[in-house]
Amino acid sequence: MFEQTIIFFQQFPTAFNTFVVILSLLIGSFLNVVVYRLPKMMHNTWYVECREFLADELEEQFKNIPPKEIAPLTLSTPDSTCPKCGHKIRFYENIPVISWLFLKGKCSQCKNSIAIRYPLVETATALLSFIVALQFGVSIETLLLLVLTWGLICLTLIDFDHMLLPDQIVMPLLWLGLLVNVNSTFVPLSDAVIGAAVGYMSLFSVFWLFKLLTGKEGMGHGDFKLFALFGAWIGWQLLPILILMASVVGAVVGISLVLFKNHQREQAIPFGPYLAVAGWVTLLWGEGIWSWYLFQIS
């Protein structure tokens, strides 16, 4: 059955692309849940761990402060509800994009607005997945890059919202990059291993150099790991063009925020989203971009 499905998709690429789009819309709906809940789950865990760690040292201060009640929260429980009225979202109210349009962007009970971000994330997930499928066709590369694309969407949004790049997403994708290149799926394994090391150590070195010179932290440790992730997938050779693209876009956005959005110069700007976007572009078109760049400067 599986082989017959693959043969069918190979014969009818339009059917394959349609399947990827529909699947990705559903995945996009789940990504919205991950982006919203995972940081809350992390904060709950940190609260419990900090209280346990400081329990003996600060027993006097803590004894009159009851622990904060933390409702059980996972990616699957409790069921999704309206944040204003608590209405339980029914399955037909959770159809990607369609339900939002049908409900006119409002809760069916209290008519509170539902952020347009939810259908936008679902649409973006489908669009990026479609581009991957179009680029690589019916192949193992497509499957792997779809997983990576979905993970990068989560990381981009979580870093944008909370300035966090969760290890729960970054590290599995980093190790996956090394594993898929055991058979040189994208680059030789040696290039992948060197790429992961160079990716991490390069930003790690910049971080400490900046801190020694200014006394401030210029980026988070999650950025090192994210850059190492891309090194594991694309090798070390394309890391220069990746960091160049991410830095240019980050600088343009940062300057624009200061000039037009009254953004304070001291206020931190997450670098992860720019790394993620530049890394995704490099994965798909890095060789061509690098060749064009070298031609322009030669």
Outline the structure in words.
With 298 residues, this protein is mainly alpha-helical. The protein has helices spanning 2-11, 13-54, 59-62, 98-102, 117-136, 140-162, 167-180, 189-214, 221-234, 239-260, 272-297. Helix 6 packs across helix 11 and helix 7 (167-180) packs antiparallel against helix 8. The protein is globular.
Total count of strands: 0
User: Measured on Cα atoms, how large is the radius of gyration?
Assistant: 22 Å
Order of helices and strands: HHHHHHHHHHH
Low-confidence parts, pLDDT < 50 over ≥5 residues? Answer: none
Helical fraction: 55-70%
Largest sheet: none
Number of DSSP helices?
11
What's the end-to-end separation, in Å? 53 Å
- Tell the overall outline: globular
The SS-based structural class is mainly alpha
What amount of the residues lies in strands? under 5%
Give a short summary of the structure.
This protein is mostly helical. It is 69% helix and 0% strand.
List strands and helices in order, with pairings.
Blueprint: H1 2-11, H2 13-54, H3 59-62, H4 98-102, H5 117-136, H6 140-162, H7 167-180, H8 189-214, H9 221-234, H10 239-260, H11 272-297
Helix pairs in contact: 1-2, 2-5, 2-6, 5-6, 6-7, 6-11, 7-8, 7-9, 8-9, 9-11, 10-11
What tags apply to this protein structure?
single chain, mainly alpha, 298 residues, 11 helices
